[in-house]
Amino acid sequence: RAVGDGALSQVYPALARANNWQGRVLLQLALDQDGRLLGLAVRRSSGYAVLDRAARRLRAAEQAATGRARA
Prior knowledge:
The structure is a single chain. This protein is of the alpha+beta class. 42% of the residues lie in helices and 20% in strands. The protein has helices at residues 5-11, 14-18, 49-66; strands at 26-31, 37-44. Strands 1-2 form a two-stranded antiparallel sheet. Strand 1 (26-31) and strand 2 form a beta hairpin. The longest helix is centred in the last third of the chain and has 18 residues, at 49-66.
């Protein structure tokens, strides 16, 4: 699922924004039967560690807010 521009602008790292860095991060999620996040790993990097960390934080924050992670 792609993140909409509104949500993305709230979490896009300032360093990446200032340098016009962009990329796609492929995350692997491990979920339990109730949809709770058990694990999270970067399967394909964006090429920028700061963007990879932001993608991981976004998924973890989503689960904290909803109690579930969406795959």
